[in-house]
Amino acid sequence: MAEQDYAELFTPEVQNALQDALKDMKNPVDIYVFIDSKDSNCNYCEVTKKFVEFVRDAAPKDSNGESLLKVNVIDRANGEDKQFEEFKVSRVPTVAFLKGYIRWTGAPLGEEIRALVETIVRLSQGESGLSPDTVSAIKEKLNGQVKVEVVVTPSCPYCPYAALLSHMVAYEACKAEKCNVLSEVVEAYENQDIAEKYQVMSVPALAVNESVEFIGVPNEENFVDTLIQKQKV
């Protein structure tokens, strides 16, 4: 995908929309962008890095004039393999938060921008937006290991809701000092092998510990109940 195809991402209109969406940030948030600048097959590495930096510039500033969104670019071409290992990242581009327990594998563009921005705001505010019942279920009943893969496409308008739900469950698991849920949003076009593995015909498709459990946006309670049933203890 040529970079000029993404010129519409970097317009004043998009910047204004981002500023408006991010204005409720409270505390700093670290975002990690994993790329390989020497990999000619990584068609989305450069645009992902540029877009995350564009989001950073639209975020509110702290008292020192620094953006509340702290961008960390990890480039495999610079020998930064240690952080790839630490975050268990193997594919580029990957955009991650919370030591990689919240991540996009593939560029979080198109409709996924909404999920990216909302994730940033919620992490910044310290609020997942999940119901008290869901939060207590995560604390009390979700103690095993869970990996959620949310397979999406950039044009899918419902996918951000599924992405956000999964990410916020991972966030609450980390807030409960467990960090036992890894939430990975997978861009289907860039990771066709994963989409094919799960025989994805429509999106969002949600796999829990490598078994497709939901097609479409799950109900919050059903989603967490399924994670509890499927957890690896």
A few lines on this structure:
By secondary structure, the chain is α/β, with parallel strands linked by helices. The chain contains eight helices and eight strands. The relative contact order is 0.14.
How would you describe what is shown here?
- This protein is of the alpha/beta class.
- It has two domains: 1-108, 3-Layer(aba) Sandwich (Glutaredoxin), CATH 3.40.30.10; 128-233, Glutaredoxin, CATH 3.40.30.10.
- The chain has helices spanning 12-22, 45-58, 81-86, 112-125, 132-141, 159-175, 192-197, 220-230; strands at residues 29-35, 69-75, 94-97, 102-105, 146-152, 181-187, 205-208, 211-215.
- It has an eight-stranded mixed β-sheet with strand order 2-1-3-4-6-5-7-8.
- α4 (112-125) runs parallel beside α6 (159-175) and α5 (132-141) packs parallel to α8.
- It is globular, with a radius of gyration of 17 Å.
The CATH topology of the largest domain is Glutaredoxin
Provide the domain count: 2
- Strand arrangement within the widest β-sheet reads 2-1-3-4-6-5-7-8
What can be said about the biggest beta sheet? 8 strands, mixed
Secondary-structure class:
alpha/beta
User: Mean pLDDT, nearest integer?
Assistant: 96
CATH class placement of the largest domain: Alpha Beta
What gyration radius follows from the Cα positions, in whole Å?
A: 17 Å
Shape: globular
Note the beta-strand portion: 15-25%
Helical residues, percent: 25-40%
Stretches where pLDDT is under 50 for at least 5 consecutive residues are: none
**Order of SSEs, N→C?**
HEHEHEEHHEHEHEEH
Family: Belongs to the glutaredoxin family.
Domain Thioredoxin-like fold: 39-118, 147-224
Organism: Acidianus brierleyi
Pfam families: Thioredoxin_3
